[in-house]
Each structure stands twice: as structure tokens, then as C-alpha cells.
Amino acid sequence: MRTFARIVTAAAAASLLATSAWAEGSVTIKGSDTMVILGQKWAEVYMQKNPGAKVQVTGGGSGTGIAALINGTTDIAESSRAMKSAEVTSAESKQGSKVKETPVALDALSIYVNASNPLTEISLPQARKIYTGVITNWKELGGPDAPITLYSRENNSGTYVFFKEHVLQNDDFDPSAQTLPGTASVVNAVSKDANGIGYGGIAYAEGIKPLLIKKDDNAPAVEGTLENAQSGKYGLARELYFYMFPGKNAAADAFAAWVVSPDGQALVEQVGYYPLKR
Amino acid sequence: MKKSSRSNPIGVVFVALCGIATATIVAMLAVILGQIVWFGAPGVSLEFLSAAPSEGMRGGGIGPAIFGTFALVVLMTIAVVPMGVLTAIYLVEYSKPGSRFAKAVNIAVSNLAGVPSIVFGLFGLGFFVQFLGGTIDSTLFDGKLVFGQPAIIWAALTLALLTLPVVIVTTQEALRAVPANAREASLALGATRWQTVYKVVLPQCTAGVLTGGILAVSRGAGEVAPIMFTGAAYFLPSLPTKLNDQFMELGYHIYVMSTQSPNVEQTKPILFATVFVLLALTFILNAAAIGIRSRFRQSLRPSDA
Amino acid sequence: MDSEAAGVLPRVEPTAAIQRAAGRNRRFTQTVEKVIEAWVKLTAMSAILTIFLIFVFVGREALPLLWEDPQPGLEHEVVNWSTLAGPTHYPDRPSRFMWQPVSNVPKYNLPPLIVGTLKTTIIAILFAAPLAILAAIMSSEFAPRWLREIVKPTIELLAGIPSVVLGFFALMVLASWLQDLLGLRLRLNALNAGIALGLAVIPIIFTVAEDALTTVPKSYREASFALGANRWETAIKIVVPAALPGIFAGVVLGFGRAVGETMIVLMASGNAATTTWSFTDSVRTLSATVAAELGEVVFGSPHYRVLFLIGVLLFVFTFAVNLCGEMYVQRLNGRLEGSRS
Predict the structure, then answer these.
(1) In a domain, B37, yes or no
(2) At B99, which CATH number?
(3) Is this structure's pTM higher than 0.90?
(4) How many CB pairs below 8 Å do chains A and B form together?
(5) For A264-277, how does the pLDDT look when each residue is reduced to its tens digit (9 = 90+)?
(6) Residue A253 contacts C where some CB pair is shorter than 8 Å
(7) Chain C residues in contact with A31 (beta carbon < 8 A)
(8) ipTM metric
């Protein structure tokens, strides 16, 4: 019995040790949870079309992807926000190479409420007041007399940073805003909470009601459609990015080039985002 | 003893409270297990257990996660069992009573058991991934990024340290259960201490060591915080085959899927089924360990020669 | 035995060569023996070494906060005692405690996280300790054999449930139940996380308390019965007081476990860094903060160092708590042993 156990353990260990060489030609992508299903779709189709290619996609938030890029633990960082200049400096000094930013898709960030909420549109200044805790009750917006429950993303999310910069104008979120770890969890929470409000990538907008966005209190209310996102009429349109060090991994360069080609862009709408304007 | 003839209401109330507390605990466990079995068992099939996830986790199965968990605990066991058994052997066979070193080891073991799992995660990241991994990379691989990143070996080693106390305590128990006269007889026949341990004491402890290993595996398969940053990942196109690969894992999969899947309602059956599989796995392991331990205790009794 | 053999086998005088070989063999075995003993002792050091290394490696990533210059590009991030412990001051509104590490001006106030950890832990202990202690008393003093056969496996099963499963249960099932039952506004809150945490802590308190109760010498109970007391009087007035230090140690160990627990609070508490005392508000605990944010930090950045600092705090705190618990248990054993003579 003992010899048998020893043989099994030795065999298992040997098999794991046998292939210790580092695989060239594989691509590691980390980052945005908003983009992770898009990245996975691209990876799936690319690997079908190029047998032998290995693309691995993990989420964790745009911040995670960017940190991994700076730390050198990923080839491509998916990000739903632009890299800050401080981060670019960090990356370039740590890895000794220039960072390349490639927009790969468009997203119309949506602010949404529970389906039972009478509200249909919101202005960005109002959204700012809600999320900084100045407006705390739905009746201040013409709704029922009920406190507003804020749902937000974890701070590793590019969506969080984008929202903070563009909607809150760099102000701080109210501490009572619940921070949930994924885009879908915010949708899930708002769909179950009649007084909830949340924000997130439009591909995940199921079971809740996205609001029409007014860039300011007097602007027209705009829906987050493909044309409005591409034309810039929609106040919360944003680009989704790939960040990488060109030349470090040829397989990664090839993948990124394919993603912005018509073949890659054709998949974007299937996943629920918008392709780049051609 | 006779009960007092007047049944004191305080007594009745107190015993009733104790009974209610006990019943509550049993009921809560039943409810939790019931929910998981009720919603999860229907989703479990052979295909579910072997197929890979598809359609962004909305379909398919959890085969890679099961494989990853398995590979992880195998590596962990290879690391923790020798360390734990040797430490227990030292504490029971070699240390002199009153030895300060032995006392320090005991304190260290009991404190290790209380370290929060997220601190193990931090340690795994700071020590294994960055320090050891980075050093290996700069000395053996010319600075190329091979081991200085999350990898199954680092996650396994982190878990090995986390489950070390379990193995040590269980092995200690098993070693102590071996009657002293077995050792004395061996030493009297001229065997050295190590020969005694290796050929006389240890063979009688295989069940105990096995129990310790199984309990360690059961604990390790359920911990998520230590592996979150040392190697686990959510969607990988291939199974881990090298020591520096990342891996999918059941517990981590449950965490990510329940908080980040694109459509929680749609993935609910899969989610419950995954939880069911993890729970079934831990329970089977625990039951096996308990069974081995009780049979081992029974078999020791007649041996007082 | 010997006499028979002596009559059969001729006695062989060892030659000088054989004697030398036997001497070498003995010395060889003894050297091997010493090497093995040293090797075993070295391995036994692994536990001590691990604790030491954890302290060193978690600490060394946090300590540079005290003296390090910020990395290029991050000069505006200043971290010192007042920014860690004190409220954030705004020019246009009242000061308050803020944890917003990802921001143009990051805020690393720790009090909301500490309050969050305390809230969930207190709820967990208030929920778990009475249940576990009363059940332990039931199991050791009143329960018939068949009940004990049910309770023990129940507690072991409960102990075997991975914390991610309890967190999942709290997130998907318990939160909705509590919200429906109590009409709560927020689905994920301290109460939800605290109760799930309590479930995780019950086995620890139960095991140590039951151990303490059964270790009370039979003579105590017998003396009490001899004096005419019945079962519950004996339990309340004699056994429980005698086992109190052990029961207390169990609660202390449970407290330590609750403070360090990560997955349950990460999934079930809402993760909002509030500083209120309401139990139905969402909270953010120390451990959940590390788990949620560690993935996205740049190695060596102030955010990274603050997270490791939180790790140091958790480690030191649980180390101290466990040491106290252990000392109590040892004193308890000593006291009871002494009283037997």
C-alpha cells in the first residue's frame, strides 16, 4: 500500500515537473471586468482561427490589469479607462519600454435604476450629487419618498475610475455606497432593490432600466445607442483599451492587431459593446 | 440521584434553553445543506463534472476547476506531509521534556493555526511570488518572468503552510497513541532512535498520518483567500501542466461566479451545483478521515501486549 | 533460550578485523543518527520559521511607509499616522473618515475598516457564543448518548464547511431572508455578514467550551450530587463556573478567528467603508479590503504598503488574541490538575 502511494506520488510529481520549460508564444491578458467577456470572445475565436495560439484572459478589474502590466506579469492589460500619466511613468520606468495604448471598442456606460423606478432620465450633475451623498432621497428627483441606495464598483475597476473622473468630477464617493466586485453584481443588486441606483458597462444591462443621459441639466436626454456612442452625443461614451509594450511578445502584437481588424471588430457587437468608428 | 420533588422552573428553563440552542445549531446546518443540495444536486452530472465552462460561464461544466483543485492539493500534500510528520516526530520522539525549543515550536504551531487566511495570501504574494519567484527568475532565468508571478507551486506552498498545524497535531496524536513499551522494546534490542521511529513507531501511525493528510486536503481545498493572488484564475484555456502555470479552482470559481458572472439568474443552477460539488468533496474527505481515525483507534486497543 | 543456542552454535571469537569493522559500523550508524536528528530538528523549526517569516515579509512590505520616498509619478500620495488614523479634511464640507485609495488624492483612513471589522465580529460573537456555549453545556451535562452522537458530527460538519460556501450562502440566501424578515433597506450589511461569520465561529467556541466542561473532574459533580443538588443545579453552580476560563478561552479564540475571516465578509457585507454604529449598514472590514484591493496594486506603491500594513495589524492582533487564549487554557489545565491533589 505504501509503495503504491509512493509510486503514485512520484508519478504525479514527475509529470508536473517534466514540462517546466516556459511556453513561448502564449499571450496573457489581464484586466477589466467590463471587458473580460469581450476578451474571452476574442480569445476563443482567435484560437479557433489560429490553432496553436494560446490566449488566456482573466479579469480582476482595470486596475489589476494595469498593475500587472507595470509589474510585468501580463502581456496585455485590458482597461475600461485611460491609464493615468503616473501609471504610464511607473510602467515605463519599471519595464524600460514605452507603453502603447490601443482603443479596441466603444462602450456606452449606463446609469440604471430598478425597473419599477419611475425615473427615465438623469443629468450628469444630478448623478454627481447622488453619488457624493448630496441628494439622498428619490423625492428630490420627482420620485417616491424613499432613500436612495447607492451601488458602486470596487476601486480596482476601470468603470469606477471613469465614473469618478467624468461624473463625480474627481470628487469622492459617499462612504455608504456599497462596493461590489463586478459589473454584473451591481446589475444584480439594483434589479433586486427598488431604491437602488447603479452604473456599469452597457453589455450587462439586463433586468434593470438604463436611464437616458443629459450631459448637463439643460441638455437633451440621449440614449446609449451605437450611433450616439460613436458620434459622441452620448455623455458617457468611453473607449475600451488594450495597453501593452509593443515588441516584447510577438504573439501578443499579432493578437492585438487582429482585434482591431474588421474580423475582430465584427465580434464586438455580439458581446454587447460597440465597435470603433471606421 | 433522586431529582428534587419540586421541579424548579429555573432548571426547566435552563435545560430547555440548552436544548433549544443545540436544536438551533443542528437546524441551521440542515437548512444550509438542504438549500445547497436542493438547488445544486440536480445540476450535477458526469458532463458537468468533466466539461469546461462555456459561453462566459453560463454553460458547460467545471471540469478544469476540479482538475485544478486536485493538482493544487496534490502539490500541497507533497509539501506539507513530510514537514508536518517530521515536526511531530521531533516533538514526540526527540524533544526532551521541558525543552524550550519544543515549547517554542508548540507555540508557533498553535499560532500558525490562528493566522488569518488573508495574511497567508499576503505572505504568499510577498514571500513566494515576489521574493522567491523573483530570486529564481533573476538567478536561473536571466530575469525573464517565469516564477515571479502567480503560479500553482506558490499557491500550493502557501496552502501547505496554512495546513501545517493540522498535519502536525494529527500526527502528534497518532504518535502518542503508540504505547511506550513498543519503543522501549525496540531500543532495548539495540535499535537507534531513528530506526525505532522509522521501523516501529511510524508504521503503526500510517492511519494517523493519513487522517492528517486528508484533513489538510479538505481544509486546503476550501480556502480561497490564500490562492487569490498566488495563482488562481477564473478563465483559462488550458489545464495547468507546469509548475508555473495558473489554475482554476473550485472555491475561487464559486467566489468569482457569484459576484461577477454576467447573468446571475442564469448561472444560479451552475453556481449551486458547483457549491454542491465543493461541499460534497470536503465532506467526503472529512468523513473518510474520521472513519480512518476511529477504526485506527479501535485497532490500537487490543495491542497492549 | 540462550542456553539452548549456546549448546548448538560454536562460540566465535571476534577477530581484530571484525572488531574494527563493528566499531566503524557503530560509528557510521551513530553519525547517520546524528544527521537525521539534526534534520528532524531543522524541519521542526519550520513552524517557528514560518511565523517569523510571515512577520518579516508582511512587515517589510509595510514598514517603508515610515521612511520611503514616493515612487516616480506618485509624489502626491502622502501616508503617515494622521492620514491613516485621522479623518479626512475637506475645504468645503465637514471632515469625515474616508477610505478611497483610488483617487486623485487617495484617502487611507483606517477607522472605517476597523469599525467594520468590530461590528461584524461583535455580531458574530453575540450570535455564536450563547448558542455554542449552551449547546456545549447540553452536550456535556444533560444530553443522552444518542443526542451527543448527533451533535458532535453536526459541529464537525459545520466546521468543515469552507468559508466561501458560507459567504455564498449569506450572499444568495440569507441576505434575502433577513431583508424580508426585518424589512431592511440594505440587503448586504453587517448583520448578514455577522450571522454568517457566527456560523463559522460556532464550532470553535463549542469545541473548546465542551472540552473545558468535560475536563472538569468527575469528583466535582459527584460531590455536588452527594450534597443533594440535581443535574442542572450542578451544571450552573459547579461545573460551568469551574470551566469558565476554558469557555472564555473558546470565545477569545472564536473572536480571533472572526476578525481574520475574509471570504464571508467579502461576499456578504456590502463593502462600504462607513463609520456608523448601525448594525444594518453595509460595512467594509480590514480583511475584505485587502482581498478586494490586493490584486490591483502596483508593487511598492503606497496603496500596496497600506494593504500590507493592514495585514500586519491583523497578524499582530490575532497573534496576541491566540496567545491569550492559549495561556488561559494552560492555566485552566494547571488549576484543575492542582485541585485534584
Answers:
(1) no
(2) 1.10.3720.10
(3) no
(4) 82
(5) 898 888 887 888 87
(6) no
(7) none
(8) 0.86
